[in-house]
Amino acid sequence: MRMVSIIVPLYNAEKYLRKCLDSIIGQTFEDWELILVDDGSKDASGNICDEYSQKDSRIKVFHKPNGGVSSARNVGIEHTCGDWITFVDADDWLDECFLENILDVPFNDADFIIGGNTMVGHRNEVNKYCKNPIKRNIREIDFSSNKCLFLFYFPWGRLFNTDIIKRNKVKFHENMRIAEDSDFIIQYLSFCNNLVLLPTSDYIHNCGAGVTLYSLTFREFKNYQTNFIQDSELFYGFHLININFVRDHFIMVLFSFYLQRLKHLHTIDEYYKQTKHWNIHSWNKTASMMKYSWFKKNVYYVFFAIPYIGYLYQKLRQIKI
Length: 321
Known about the structure:
The protein is an alpha/beta fold. It has 2 domains: 4-112 and 143-192, Spore Coat Polysaccharide Biosynthesis Protein SpsA, Chain A; 218-318, no CATH class. It is 43% helix and 17% strand. Strands 3-2-1-4-10-6-11-9 form an 8-stranded mixed beta sheet, with helices on both faces. A 4-stranded mixed beta sheet has the order 5-12-7-8. The longest helix has 22 residues, at 218-239.
């Protein structure tokens, strides 16, 4: 077995942080280092991190100005010394056998190891992705099916090869605050030959820790869209495999957050600022990625091109009869 670097980015996480850290310290597999990145917390999170680092030499703490979870994870990556990297959210926790079980892989050449998870809170479910360990070459995977999407949803509960990440300079896009983990995994898989699925569920994801309602400006949406397009092209360049289905799925998710922003604008001027940059070419390109029908595509373009109609429509939708 080899050493695991556990990266925990955190911001104002004092409510659950001790439970998270205690679950890591209590792991049955002990060859790990814990990298805590305090992203400018305003509560006692930073002090809790320092307290734990004084008790265990395997714990490193880095305090930084607030820059978002992507920048915090990137700081963690820069300071890793382990052979594997795993990410843990500060409001989640691990079963005591998490590391031992996810490292118990019957294959020597795994590049990406994926375990399942247990969700608690407002969602209570156990997600196991297989009954027995499965190894798949990247080129054997059907990336045109919904069945593959779980590979890209989150970075926790998985093991990433540190050498692959550092040698290829794989990083989280720091201009992204939504779907940044999915984009990171697309980048990472570009440099992998195979992955392994394990029948575990030892990562406990806390769905009750608070739900953030996201929305995106036009500029954010276009920047995120560009990241996904570029990184899907990176993937194709290495594997000669088209993952447009995956790319388009996440672009559709991002577009829904852009529409969420439009719903909550208060004036026609605000609406105009968020829609004026659309032109027929850029909208047709985006709409085709989302497989919109001719009718839906043109209705949305009318809303963008004639802001008064779009703004009135959004306001009418908010009226409860």
